[in-house]
Amino acid sequence: QVQVVESGGGLVQAGGSLRLSCAASDTMFVINAAGWYRQGPGDRRELVAGITSSGSTNYEDSVKGRFTISRDNAKTTVYLQMNNLKPEDTAVYYCNADIRSGSTWYNDYWGQGTQVTVSS
Question: DSSP readout, 66-104?
Fold first, then answer.
């Protein structure tokens, strides 16, 4: 069964850093493309950063210059490096991934989310 698992959330003071990880449930699975989303209390889920199969990246305006999305060479894990965190970055962060296992594709899989809390 394909699953997407996030890790790396936590509590940090404003100005601090965290790195989130997103991995498929089996090392035989390749993450072809992925996006990090976040949802604060009472807010809609929004795209924070994305990475395509070719490695192109895009960012929501409020995180440009502070967040970096990347992928390991084996394409088994996608990261979100978050620097200079602000209280308004507080949210549950979700990974959404398109995964390939051999010739089989599993598109639009969501992880369970990881909480990021930034204190002022």
Answer: TEEEEE-TTSSEEEEEE-S--GGG-EEEEEEEEEEETTE
**Dihedral over alpha carbons 25, 30, 32, 38 (to 10 degrees):** 20
Closest CA to 22 of 12, 32, 41, 58: 32
Chain mean pLDDT for the chain: 95
Q: Are 61 and 81 in contact (CB under 8 A)?
A: no
**Residue 19's Cα: distance from chain center in Å?**
9
Kindly report, residue by residue over 95-107, the tens digit of the pLDDT: 999 999 889 999 9
Beta bridge partners, 70, equal 79
Inform me whether the pLDDT recorded for 118 exceeds 90. yes
Residue linked to tokens 């594709």 = 105
pLDDT, tens digit, 9 for 90 and up, residues 35-48: 999 999 899 999 99
CB 24 within 8 Å of CB 75: no
Task: Output the 3-class SS for 20-41.
Answer: EEEEECCCCCEEEEEEEEEECC
